[in-house]
Write a structure and sequence with these properties.
127 residues; alpha+beta; four-stranded antiparallel β-sheet
């Protein structure tokens, strides 16, 4: 009966099942930041797909609140004329992905092609 339970489990639960005897499990947090939502979502989907192909535990993408940076400025360069204003804004989108895996497999996962304009920050912590 134990073999049937092992076949049903979707993710490996022990370090030796993933990376051998000496592999230490790490909690890896990948932070993705971009102004372009489509490029950000594509990179998130590619990362999660490659992590699931490696049979890792994946949490995310967690969508963090969008930062809206606003600049209000006068339209007239000299100050003459009617007092009309322009509002310019830049929206910064952020996603978090958490992985539980040995640090060696992160290099394989993050080797995907990353869209231009998407910044990736990887933080590794021991479990």
């Amino acid at each position: 009966m134990a073999t049937a339970a092992a076949a049903v489990a979707p993710y490996p639960t022990k370090a030796k099942e993933i990376g051998g005897e000496g592999a230490r499990m790490h909690r890896i947090r990948i932070t993705l930041t971009s102004r372009n939502v489509k490029a950000l979502e594509k990179v998130c989907a590619d990362l999660i797909k490659s992590a699931k192909n490696e049979r890792l535990r994946v949490k995310g993408p967690v969508r963090l609140p969008t930062k809206v940076l606003v600049i209000t400025t006068r339209k007239s360069p000299c100050g003459e004329g009617s007092k009309t204003w322009d509002r310019f804004e830049m929206r910064v989108h952020k996603r978090l992905i958490d992985l539980h895996s040995p640090s060696e497999t992160v290099k394989q996962i993050t080797s995907i092609s990353i869209e231009p304009g998407v910044e990736v920050e990887v933080t590794i912590a021991d479990v």
